[in-house]
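Quick one, probably user error.
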């Protein structure tokens, strides 16, 4: 789902901006016509790395994703596909190692304990910086509001007629962060193997730097999620009736009642559902995952016009969201425990959404990748 900055309810809009308190938007809107692929559209002149080098073993907790060529984007028979997922484009990627599961609370705590890093959701709010992103003359909110926090999901008491009004089920919670996922009074007890959440892009990048990893590109993410399921909608095939057995999503009337047919109402421990062909868990549902690509509404459409196969693409050069031309956002993939067939259905392989770099939410985490080149002379 897309978390927007503007709402008819000013306080909710302001709270969304609070989640984006370190990166100032450019003051000139982007144009969708500016998008272009970073990678050269050409036929590869060097062999694609399919199998891992023999002298390099998979780092602990990672598996090898073989290189190859595939169609990135929506398959033709996907009736739930959105316009920004198509037309599909031919892509070739080199092989790489990927985390078997999303980064957990326990994993992230090791990083925090060693570095002392403070996440975006925990940082004090700088009004002088924030007001640069607001209309001139906006009054400073009361100090009781100007405190660190993040977005937390809340169920509604009754069905909602407008599923585009996200303020109905999102709440700005002062004190919510990765250590207190539901706000003050909550903690990580019994949740050590839950995926870490309330993680901004900046936070994920800091973890990657510490771990010697990086975030996947959108193309790499789709290659990994698809496995051997060519021309299939989901990472397990096309059978939607098995969703509750295959992924942690919303079952029931969103956002009122979750039947927990899949066993969970909120986040699940990583590895709670069957892995895909490559041994990866939770490539559908549980929490959204950051990629390193800029989000551009027109990326697929304009890339397709160039023809030929994209080699190791890294996405659009220019961020652009047709709903908010001023936004600078990255692509997130995989859907979350909040996705349902009636709402976002983003547990599909091709599904993609956009989130600003410093946004943190209860349903957003990440996993990392590493290439043989990044491992350098390290041998296990």
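Nope, works fine. Designed sequence:
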């Amino acid at each position: 789902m897309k978390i927007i900055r503007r709402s008819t309810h000013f306080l909710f809009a302001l709270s969304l901006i609070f989640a984006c308190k370190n990166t100032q938007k450019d003051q000139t809107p982007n144009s969708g016509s500016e998008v272009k692929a970073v990678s050269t559209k050409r036929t590869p002149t060097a062999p694609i790395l399919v199998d891992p080098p023999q002298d390099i073993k998979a780092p602990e907790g990672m598996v090898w994703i073989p290189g190859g060529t595939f169609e990135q984007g929506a398959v033709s028979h996907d009736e739930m596909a959105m316009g920004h997922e198509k037309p599909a484009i031919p892509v070739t990627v080199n092989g790489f190692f990927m985390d078997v599961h999303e980064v957990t609370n326990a994993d992230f705590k090791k990083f925090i304990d060693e570095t002392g890093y403070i996440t975006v959701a925990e940082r004090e709010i700088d009004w002088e910086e924030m007001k640069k992103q607001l209309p001139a003359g906006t009054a400073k909110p009361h100090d009781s509001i100007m405190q660190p926090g993040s977005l937390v999901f809340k169920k509604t008491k009754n069905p909602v007629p407008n599923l585009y009004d996200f303020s109905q089920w999102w709440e700005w919670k002062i004190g919510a962060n990765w250590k207190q996922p539901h706000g003050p009074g909550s903690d990580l007890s019994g949740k050590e193997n839950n995926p870490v959440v309330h993680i901004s892009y900046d936070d994920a990048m800091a973890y990657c730097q510490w771990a010697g990893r990086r975030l996947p590109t959108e193309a790499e993410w789709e290659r990994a999620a698809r496995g051997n399921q060519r021309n299939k909608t989901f990472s397990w095939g096309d059978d939607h009736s098995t969703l509750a057995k295959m992924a942690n999503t919303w079952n029931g009337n969103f956002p009122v009642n979750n039947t927990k047919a899949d066993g969970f109402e909120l986040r699940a421990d990583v590895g709670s559902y069957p892995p895909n062909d490559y041994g990866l868990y939770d490539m559908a549902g549980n929490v959204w995952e950051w990629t390193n690509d800029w989000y551009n509404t027109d990326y697929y459409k304009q890339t397709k016009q160039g023809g030929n196969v994209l080699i190791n693409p890294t996405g659009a050069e220019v961020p652009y969201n047709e709903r908010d031309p001023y936004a600078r956002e990255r692509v997130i993939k995989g859907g979350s425990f909040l996705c349902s067939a009636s709402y976002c259905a983003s547990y599909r392989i091709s599904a993609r959404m956009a989130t600003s770099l410093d946004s943190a939410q209860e349903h957003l985490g990440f996993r990392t990748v590493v290439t043989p080149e990044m491992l350098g002379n390290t041998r296990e």
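The chain is about 15% helix and 15% strand.
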